[in-house]
Amino acid sequence: MKFTFFIGCNIPTRVQQYELAARAVSKSLGIELVDNPDFKCCGNPIRNTDQQTFLLMAARNLALAEKQGLDMMVLCKCCFGSLKKAAHFMAQNPQAQADINSHLSKENLNYSGTIEIKHFLSVLYHDIGIKTIKETITQPFKKLNIATHYGCHALRPSDVTQFDDPVAPVLFDALVKVTGAKSIDWPLKLECCGAPMYGIMDSLSMDLTQKKLADGLGAGADYLCVACPYCQMQFDNVQSQMMSHNKHKHNLSSIVYPQLLGIAMGLSGDELGLGQNILDISNIESFLE
Amino acid sequence: MFYNTATYIALAIFTVGLIYKMAGWFRFSIDMQNKTRTPQASSRILMAIKGIITTLFSPKILILIRVFIEDVLVQMRILKEDTLRWLMHMLIFAGFMFLLFTHALDKFIFTSLFNKFYLTLNPFLLIAGLMVITGVAISLYRRLILKVPRLKTTAIDYYALIILAIIILSGITMELTKLTSYEYYQTIWIIHISACLFGLAYLPFSKMLHIFTTPLSLLTNAAMDEKSIQENIKTRQIMELDACTRCGTCSNRCSVAVAFDHLGNKNILPSERMEFLKAYYTDKNIGPKGLAAIQQGIYLCTNCDRCTVVCPAGINLKELWFNIREEMIGHNQLVELILTPFSYYRGLQVSRFDAKQYNKPLAITWEKITDPYKLLRQPDDTIPLTPKNQEFKKSVGLSPQAKTNAYCFTCENCSTVCPVVENYEDPQKDLDLLPHQIMRSMGLGIKDLAMGSKMLWSCLTCYQCQEHCPQGVKVTDILYELKNLCANEAKQGIKTEKQNNCE
Prior knowledge:
A: four-stranded parallel sheet
């Protein structure tokens, strides 16, 4: 199984542990990841003010993947949503696609819509399968309560992303359960982490984050589990900022999914970048059987 | 006589030029917002000396030796990017350095050490000369025929290549004519010596200054981090502007370079921003048009740090951007990109700001983005039933997804599931309008309501509203389109404002 690997902008500089762990876990599961140094920003940040530029930025990456002849595996849910949206938009608007292609032709690129864009979790769930993953678990967790955070841009709009059922998703829960951990029910499971408004209206952003953290703790979670760099930065970097400001007393550390899976697979802490999280997660190993 | 006088004059100009350049490193500073707190040049010189001495007598010397070998001599950073470019640079670098030490400075260095080898050296001189010429030829090939992406060629680059070519070609011709024609030899000798001395005298003002500044940038950046003495960081940042050769590596790797292809604002490209900075730090008068362009260029950045990772001169570009970003958005002007996820990085860096400095650009942009749409801020005005703004109604109904607003029957599902609305005790007080009201304003063609609410720019884009709309209204996508329209109008507004100011 072979994918071209889309890492995005945030992961290589601010959430390196996600990339490390995803590569380690993929290797163990036989997923071959091909790097493409020409991939650039997915376009998501500029959607608010300039959709044309957004489309071009997203489409260029898709065209590069097409040139490689490989389906794309995306780590970031905002990148995933953005690329999916662009692909969907062009499929519905042939004229827009032609305009984009006339731009791309300057770089000898062309997008025709022949590749699939998949999020990392979808690859694990659909292409590898829970059964195969289960066989690789060497040290399952016990009595570990995980608040599984789905992330908006993978889940919705469901007609575009086609990730899972937008109201009652099961994919991420199943992937958490296979590690032996319990994926708890918590009311705000499908809500936004708050990241999109951070840096723009910090009070709103932190209010939403705080609600989620309180909700997860109230439901008995030991850790949050995410699969998106923005969600991770919000629950890790921003939560630690909130704690240092004393505005906020909760502490619910967040672990990136491949870290959780990797521990249960018996991979070493260094391979999974466990020490790179800002809020300490080392205690999670005490939940191993 | 001519030779000696000319040499001393050239050396004098070179020395004065170098001192003038170096003085600039200590006199200026990039983060001009804190100008009042910028320390005196004299104290910065002392700090630099202190920094150099403490580094040389610390374990960091080992790092410096490694960087000197890997990045200065072997130039691994260039090799990693592009083999042909490395070959080109290595031919020029190795050939030129060989000629410099064994030929130009032979009296001082080479003959004093190995005086018996002078005669046998001639073939080596020829080989070194040919190496440089081959390097120059490869460079011209890359620039003119291969047209390497994002490699801009200007007069500065041509000057560097031409002076090198004249020095080497005249040198080779001179050696070849030495035995055949003395007259011819004398003429060529004058050309050769004049070119060398001109090159030397003009060096501090030309691209060739990078012979000194690029290794200096590589070494200082290897030894320094953000905890280093603040004065030295300021000094290094100005010095780095002289270390940039505008090789285009950063722009080639830049995550948002595609936006430049579409928007045509060259300030989006990091290497072009370096050019801007070189002019800006001495003359801050850039005019409103220049300001808007640099604001967009500096803010349209995902802070992926790729430019810093790949820079062959080891320049800490990300810190330069950090400083200049604050300088540029601190003006009393709307920067619509502040209301996008590009701001996330700035939020993560909040501890580096004082609260006032952090909040000012945000507050100004929030105020100005809703300012043109007066209706919401005049609650006593009654909304006229007619005429509706038909033109607006048409303009927002252009895209297939925006047309879906017509299906809205105001069930308020979107506003009920919206986590932003839910966050406020009295959402209408904080957000002006709720999502369903924005949808209806579009249906009624009331532009001020559709575009002027804080709700519009507080949208998380979490797509709860769109997912839960029983009528299939693409609520989030429509909010995106309205934000686009708003941003466009804001830009137009800035333009007309500027035109008025210019008149």
